[in-house]
What we know:
By secondary structure, the protein is an alpha+beta fold. The chain has 14 helices and 17 strands.
Amino acid sequence: MENRTKRTLIASAAGFAAGLDAVRAAKFKPKKKEYPALPEENVNVERYTETLQAAIRCKTISNIDMSKMDKNEFIKLHNLLRKQYPLMHEKLKVEDIGFAALLYTWEGTDPSLKPIALLGHQDVVPITDGTLGDWKHPPFDAVIDDGVLYGRGAIDMKNHLVGVCEAVETLLEEGFTPKRTVYLCFGCNEEIVASPESQAELISKTLESRGVELESLLDEGGGLLNMKIPGVIDKNIVGIGIGEKGNVEFRITVPGDGGHSSAPPKHTAAGKLADVIKDIENHPFPVRVSPEIKNVIKILCENVEFPVRLLTVNYKALMPAIVLAMANIKGASSLMRTMQAVTMLEGSPQFNVLPKNATAGVNFRIIPGEHVSDVEKHLRKVIKNKDAVIEFRGGNEPSIISPTDSRTFNLISDLVGSMSDRNVIVPFIVMGGTDARHYQNICSQLYRISPFQMDFEIVFTSHGTNERIPVSSFHDGVAFFKRYIRKLSSE
């Protein structure tokens, strides 16, 4: 009888607690910061659209071998910018750097203030072989169809680069003069992540040689993601990148005997390489729940709708389960661990020849807190074939983590927060790489956001088929850059 009473009391207490959680979840409202109201901005959407279309038609395609890049296409883009933005080219100092990079200097009136920089890259990735026919419109035709602009570079990142230029030109038309010097740094081979000839690094070293130390810089990497799942969440998730993963590449070679395919060994070099690849893919890196990830989870859990909030109201207690679920979701998993991908394979040159060697290229995106040396240790540990040759092919460590209490971060938050009451600010670690990392020698506050609102499915067309951007995002995107430059360079 006594045990039954205990069970009844426990069940009653659990039910009461659940009831309290239900009430708390129903009444809960995430803390809402009051953002300042912003005056309407003058934006020449027609000129911006025309320029972005023309920029996409410039086939500024990257290649790890820079001798294979068509410099004429970059010159075509440079001439376009000169034509469309004459004041920018009259009032700002323009320098050609390296292969085809551009450095603009907008001198401020107060040299005692640290300058700021806005970054962009002119290059785009190539179209994957065999996919051209899958495009709704040819990738370099820049066709607008049903309110959407299609084209390679539409969101990565000619929209951003042209948006910065449009903002500068309009500010000049309005008679604005900055107190702080403003640099526009436009690289030309950002898409070659591990390039030994990074043109962004060349710009950075040029500035360093002149004694320049930046207060902050802005690059691509985050964005305004419309996340609308009926009954779950209806918000714009505004990602502000405060850091980025490292990137490293290893080449793994398995030796073989070679010879004629009529007399093969039990396992060819290619077969042995298959086992090596299985060893790598069957041993993912462990999950790391950083403070930044905990904050992302907290913000998302606080902004879901009732009754889903019944589950997330106790997100601290549920953190292990949430992390486990995220670890098994493509995309979400990338936020929490070093990712590995076997991307390149080489073997025999033809069907009837045994490979003398079989090789795999593996790319790793390293989460902050881990290092390039950890990747190599991991490979040597998990690969059972000790005859495999593991060769470092280049890369870089994870970036520094920029503060979330700086003047620049707060300004970015205020600007995007003021755009809509649906906007939720989420500081996060960028999964890919940007040119921002090359400026750590002259700057400790590096932020990443491209302020163009788009739906979830559009975001993932970057580097893919039917890359595109909604025309409806153009006004607010350019307005953000105008406000950012005006405010940040004025004090």
